[in-house]
Amino acid sequence: MLRYFLTRLAGAVPTLFIIVTLAFFLIRAAPGGPFDQEQTLPPEIMANLQRAYGLDQPMWTQYGRYLAAVLHGDFGPSFKYKDFSVTELIGQGFPVTFELGSIAMALALILGVPIGTFAALHHNRAADYAAMSLAVVGIAIPSFVVLPFLGLLFGIYLHWLPVAGWEPGSIRHLALPVVALALAPLSVIARLVRASMLEVLRSHFIRTAFAKGLPLHTVLVRHALRPALLPVASYLPPAVASIMTGSLVVESIAGLPGIGRYMVQGALNRDYTLVMGMVIIYSTLLIVMGLLVDLLYAWLDPRVRFER
Amino acid sequence: MSTLIDDAARRLRANPAAMCALVVISSIVALTLIGPWFNPNGSETLDWSHVASQPAWAGAHWFGTDRLGRDLFARTLDGARISLAVGLVASAVSLLVGIGYGAVSGYIGGRTDHVMMRGIEILSGLPLVFFIIFLTVIFGRSVYLLFLSIGAVGWLTMARIVRGQTLSIRQREFIEAAVASGAGTARIIARHVIPNVIGPVVVYATLTVPQIIMFESFLSFLGLGIQEPHASLGALIAEGAGEMEAAPWILLVPGGLLALLLLALNILGDGLRDALDVKER
Question: CA–CA separation, A269 vs B225, rounded Å?
């Protein structure tokens, strides 16, 4: 078990390395540089800037230096946000993005699993059809349409919630973005749980559990839930990825000071170090998610063994 | 084969939701094609007497105008046409690449198959969306790049499906007959394998159309899609989201159309999948 986990962890290192390498050379292959402005800078100043940031060095030297710095936890200075290091920028924005994303994920799980179970229990009846129709809507309509619509309804017409903006610790400001982000994964989870629950409920051990005279909720919680959650576990990494990409637009619509905006802005500004920092943060998160899901699998299905 | 398609068509016709969706989609497509003929306003004409005006009969701005006095009905239809085109072309790209890759991997099998499938696994583990954002930012916002890059993401699932279909077809007698008659591997794949997997796979490709339209709108929303004066639905929604307090219709018209289109495409896709019962792998 531990050995398997360590092997997987070791396997993640080359993946991350490939991603970092690709991103490093791709962004530098782009035309233009971080110090391009409307007015061209005098060549001496440009040369000084380039030297200060180490951009005058050969590409391979830059690459080597960057890798060495990252391994020491230093993502370098931002080229566009003067006086800020990438670590500071991401350190300030990340808690907001993380709060938004994790609440959305939690909401999707907390509502999606019961809705899916409920639909399965009412298979082919009105409740099932209602839940699954809503799920199609949730899957079909992207967050960047849902959020403005919610803002219009609850913010501008009903005045219940703020349309945009951010106050530390304010749940009200997070409510609409969280709902917009959670809707798609929630719907997918409800569908997955419904399908797997239908299958599980037909199996022999569930019939045995009912035959023993156990009440419905005991059968569901103690027997049916775990195996029915397996497909949800394998959906978690794509769900996290979709929440991450969704947060790029949701943060900008809702005016949240997260790190979402740095990805596109950074790439447009040729802010090499900032973009690299973002790529590293997001890829690491995804890879860690994949590892956690493996562990979750072992817990959900004891038949899963980690021998190779 | 033909009975398979007939059966599927019959099951699809028995599905009222899918048929409704089909009607909605056809209407939207028809509207994008013939709408401009009825609308006296062009999508790029600036009407300075109606700037950000509400939906009204006056000036024939049925869905209102945006901040520059451009007719929203015309612009939304323009955007929908672009979104649909991107959805179809990028799906076709992913279909082509996916069929080639999946058929080769599934037919040759063994180590080659193992390596090729491992490649797909690695690729689907990468945060591809970020690389596409990268590519579009770096290499400019050309339409072709948009098609290619979006298609490049879609082909992964497609290749898996084609491989699954190929694996079962490889066992059939007509393949054996082809091998016995001395046909080369490339010829067998092109002449015998692909024609036999293509039916269900093309239908399955319709499932990717809404995903691709959604993704293109996402890029346009970020300002990385098609450029002005053209705008796909995503860009129109981004514009509308900024104006929603003063002029909500600028958001509601394109947003509503995109929502309706994606919903209908998803329902139709689900119906097709149920009718054909295509399984991944």
Answer: 17
